[in-house]
């Protein structure tokens, strides 16, 4: 993310990660039936994926009075600091979507913002010193507001979405000028840059401020572009995919969690972190909601990492 | 392609490669204008891509009396044996297509089979001993006929296309039972298997006979599946793509050409060969027709191979 390979100089073995994003309840229709009130939202996936790598994750979000307390209790049990999740009177952010039979495309049927409409992230005193910050795809004005609250993060990564690219481009561009890394999917990158070719789209985005851009491509893996070059992370070809919701957020959580675990931002560590992102994304899509990220162990994560390494390995040839 | 790692036991350093496929003239419309009478056809791309790796390539095809002799002379100058390209009275196979402005999709405007409608591949005496055989996406009955003419190939790879999956499935399945490797693009794999998920589609295809299947995914790279596992070859993220026509055939030519060059079929060599395929596909799309495969050198091929290796490299992590 920081092309010159700047290292973090903290004495702590595990760096702290602050996640600001949505916490939601999703209704999802698709080839495996209709599922109601599933735990969703970017922060839910990010925090859970990151929790396997570091015990130093805190999340900031908002839920309504319909939100089951057990979801927060589970995150707390995983070591995630959930004190920044406000509970407000009203309904939790609620997304309803339908996946095509092949899971390749999805349609939003309904979005009820509920208490999320008035979300004002308040970063608690302890989290203001977070070294790594991941801004989920919330309103870019809120992302900017978070950046005024944190003190000296070593790495700030941000996501965004089509809605903000459409209606809040000035705020979005202001935000992009202040973050190190933008993490978006391919369609978002194309829309933001007004350019179909991903390498050109990335070059366009880098001119807006970030020193690196990560483009998530679903089952085609992810691409990292920065001033110094590019990296392609493969995706695991999975036979059993149930629910692609949260794949990109799980990728982001695995990536940032591994960076917190590794404690440096060298180019080599960042590449490995992207593979960890791919690993966590692959677990997420095998089950509904965050279920694919439940009950994982370091051993299973390591095993899938090794499978991805084996999938991608080839010998250098000399002609 | 042969999961048990069977080696070829020829004394020759470079194994012989026989290519049977179409030789065509293409009219192509797209964001870079309308281009008429471009050299096209699977065999044209395959043979040219393979010619950089071995001088032991022969092609079998048919052209009409409108086909410029210089295209054949050029291949001959590259060391390709073109004596198996028949010239018949009539028009050369002519394809007209239009690419969308983003080059992501294309529409066939017209197909005139011309002399290709009566194509009957006749394998010359010398080519019947070819060790590697690549069957372009011609009628599966013709692919089967070629297999009765060759003597003891160590590796037979075949391509196919939506037309044959639609109208000649019995012959196609008979052919699949007799080849080692099927090389198709993702949509063809899905259509053939009746299954969107690529891992499942590959498993379905492997049950039809081939010991391996290679799925070409354009700018998402290529996947190899065989009984023993899987390999994912990345694609080079290119800023300048002019004409995707022939990318998959150039991939196949680079792959088979490298296998001929390397002289073995070990799992490691096959992985490296897929990367060489990706390299040759990346050159092909940067120019119209076979122009991206002109004037290459081993040095430039090696350089792009090294770039792909750098693009895909990551360190193994231990959690």
Order of helices and strands of chain A: EEEHEHEEEEHEHHEHHEEEHHH
Strand count, sense and closure of the main sheet of chain A?
9 strands, mixed
Low-confidence stretches of chain A: 1-12
Strand order of the largest sheet of chain A: 5-4-1-8-9-10-11-12-13
**Given the helix and strand composition of chain A, which structural class is it?**
alpha/beta
Oligomer: homodimer
Q: For the CA atoms, what is the radius of gyration of chain A?
A: 18 Å
- Mean pLDDT of chain A comes to 94
Helix content of chain A: 25-40%
Total strands of chain A: the figure is: 13
The greatest interface here is: A-B, 53 and 53 residues
Distance between the termini of chain A: 34 Å
Kindly estimate the percentage of residues of chain A that lie in beta strands according to DSSP. 15-25%
What characteristic shape of chain A results from the CA principal axes? globular
Number of helices of chain A: 10
Task: Report on the architecture of this protein.
The structure is a homodimer of 319-residue chains. Chain A has 319 residues and is α/β, with parallel strands linked by helices. Helix content of chain A is 34%, strand content 23%. Chain A is built from 10 helices and 13 strands. Chain A has helices spanning 42-50, 69-77, 140-149, 162-167, 169-176, 186-193, 198-207, 247-262, 267-284, 298-312; strands at residues 17-20, 24-29, 35-40, 57-63, 81-87, 93-99, 106-112, 132-135, 155-158, 181-185, 212-216, 222-226, 229-233. In chain A, the strands form 2 sheets. In chain A, strands 5-4-1-8-9-10-11-12-13 form a 9-stranded mixed β-sheet, with helices on both faces. Chains A and B meet through helix 7, strand 13, helix 8, helix 9 and helix 10 of A and helix 7, strand 13, helix 8, helix 9 and helix 10 of B.
